[in-house]
Amino acid sequence: MTRPTPLPPLVQTRIATRLGDVRLAASPRGLAGLWFDGQRHQPTDALDGPRAWPADGAHPVLRAAAAQLTDYLEGRRNGFDLPLDLVGGTPFQQAVWQALSAIPHGAVTSYAALARGLGRPLAVRAVGAAVGRNPVSVIVPCHRVLGSGGALTGYAGGLPRKTALLRLEGALPESLRSLPLWPEVDADAGPPARTPLAAGVAA
């Protein structure tokens, strides 16, 4: 089994957003992490505790990421212009994360379509696992991936956030558009039930 590449030394900062607090981490090469508080698969020991990455809110990449993320969530921008450092994963995970980065604003795809695009049509579950371990949420847009048949399922930051992000981008189906744009998010409440989406998503 291929092991993930170890993360280089990083610095971090915490910012408040309309979807809850976010941790940002950067290496000398670029942004290496964006996790919502309580998000699954975040490197908890590296974010908190005696061996945590040092805080550096003045780091230029972290400052730029904080500003661009705020603008995105306020609807003032549709994309990001940041150097990324996605070395902290296996080659397969990195390939999946690169494929996620190619999904445009306002569009959605499925885990099966991602697997086919990578030339691994039978690796849908492995693709799903790699999507769930995406270390740079929102900017590497794993929220734009839907389940089989267009089900709104699977988001490490919680389905209320996924719903809000898709609605912000105009990608949420008509049946769910009556939900508040910024639903109250409780990271400890666990994921809500699967919600079917409208037809038209590539399976």
UniProtKB/TrEMBL annotation:
Residues 13-86 form the Methylguanine DNA methyltransferase ribonuclease-like domain. GO terms for cellular component: cytoplasm. It is found in: Cytoplasm. This enzyme catalyzes only one turnover and therefore is not strictly catalytic. According to one definition, an enzyme is a biocatalyst that acts repeatedly and over many reaction cycles. Belongs to the MGMT family. NCBIfam families: ogt. GO terms for molecular function: methylated-DNA-[protein]-cysteine S-methyltransferase activity. GO terms for biological process: DNA alkylation repair; methylation. CDD domains: ATase (cd06445). It catalyses: a 6-O-methyl-2'-deoxyguanosine in DNA + L-cysteinyl-[protein] = S-methyl-L-cysteinyl-[protein] + a 2'-deoxyguanosine in DNA; a 4-O-methyl-thymidine in DNA + L-cysteinyl-[protein] = a thymidine in DNA + S-methyl-L-cysteinyl-[protein]. Residues 91-171 form the Methylated-DNA-[protein]-cysteine S-methyltransferase DNA binding domain. It comes from the Bacteria. Keywords: Cytoplasm, DNA damage, DNA repair, Methyltransferase, Transferase. The active site is at C142. Involved in the cellular defense against the biological effects of O6-methylguanine (O6-MeG) and O4-methylthymine (O4-MeT) in DNA. Repairs the methylated nucleobase in DNA by stoichiometrically transferring the methyl group to a cysteine residue in the enzyme. This is a suicide reaction: the enzyme is irreversibly inactivated. Its EC number is 2.1.1.63. SUPFAM superfamilies: Methylated DNA-protein cysteine methyltransferase domain (SSF53155), Methylated DNA-protein cysteine methyltransferase, C-terminal domain (SSF46767). InterPro entries: MethylDNA_cys_MeTrfase_AS, MethylDNA_cys_MeTrfase_DNA-bd, MethylDNA_cys_MeTrfase_DNAb, MethylG_MeTrfase_N, MGMT, MGMT_N_sf, WH-like_DNA-bd_sf. The keyword Methyltransferase applies. It comes from Paracidovorax konjaci. This is Methylated-DNA--protein-cysteine methyltransferase.
